[in-house]
Amino acid sequence: FLLTVAQIFMSFLTLFNWAQVSANPGSFLFDLLKFAGGTFFAIFIALSGIARYLAK
User: Fold this and answer.
1) pTM of the model
2) Which domain range does residue 46 map to?
3) Residue that wins the pLDDT comparison between 45 and 18
4) 23 phi, psi to nearest 5 deg
5) What is the distance between the alpha carbons of residues 17 and 14, in angstroms, rounded to a whole number?
6) Transmembrane ranges (predicted)?
7) What is the DSSP string of 1-56?
8) Cβ-Cβ contacts under 8 Å for 23 (sequence gap 6 or more)
9) Do 8 and 38 form a contact (C-beta atoms < 8 A)?
């Protein structure tokens, strides 16, 4: 699970231009938190769906 999140995080970082990050770190942090929240929510929905499917 943690490796999956780390892999998604690394693919997210490759999309960013590091010069842009150093020029505007606030925007980078906001996008990072938004991306991390969306990823966590998607994984949570998937795991709860699998749990409900297995509970039937």
Assistant:
1) 0.49
2) 2-55
3) 45
4) -75, -35
5) 8
6) 33-55
7) -HHHHHHHHHHHHHHS-HHHHHH-HHHHHHHHHHHHHHHHHHHHHHHHHHHHHHH-
8) none
9) no
The amino acid sitting at 44 is F
pLDDT in tens, 23-51: 778 887 888 888 888 888 888 898 899 98
- Total structural domains within the chain: 1
- The number of residues in the chain equals 56
d(CA 53, CA 21): 42
Q: CA angle, 37 as apex, 1 and 6 as ends, to 5°?
A: 35
Residue 18 clears pLDDT 70, i.e. is over it? no
